Amino acid sequence: MRKLISLSIFSLSMAFSLISAQKIKDGETLDVNGLSVTFNILNKESVTVGGKDFDRYKVSAKAVNNSQKSYNIRLNNAPQIVSNITLVELNCINATGSKLTSKKIDLKLKPQNVNVTYWAYTKDGKYQSFVIPIVAGYYFDNGDSVNDDAIHCTKRRNTGCYSQKLTVII
Fold this sequence. Notes:
By secondary structure, the chain is mainly beta. The protein has one helix spanning about 1-20, and strands at about 20-25, 30, 35-50, 50-65, 70-75, 85-90, 105-110, 110-120, 125-140, 145-155, 165-170. It has a four-stranded antiparallel β-sheet, with helices on one face. A four-stranded antiparallel β-sheet has the order 2-3-4-10, with no helix packed on it. Strands 5-9-8 form a three-stranded antiparallel β-sheet, with no helix packed on it.
């Protein structure tokens, strides 16, 4: 009975997550919740590896915050690990993920760095101050943009079989 309830909750959550996904094509800009997301194919080449034919794409994605709100995550103590800083996720539907290539692009919040001064003894026994930058939080203000690029490989079976699925996390 527990397995059935867990499976139904998982299925329901997957169904709702698929509803928010959209397809995006090369050169297209989508506006989702005040974020303008642009996807571009920068380069395409055909390669043969181990007797198999692949199309290798270098792609780029950019998100611009056109909403009237800022996104902030403040960290209260160190070290604090924050794993959910992704704004937008672009998944290549046909990507293989092989040969050190990725299947998706994650556009994440920007880190807020703060310089911290601390005092410590050096190897020579001197008491000296040191400055190290630490991440104090993450932000994405109105008008800010984040971008990333990746390399995706797809099996060469159809012409123009490359497509992306856009999921806005926020």
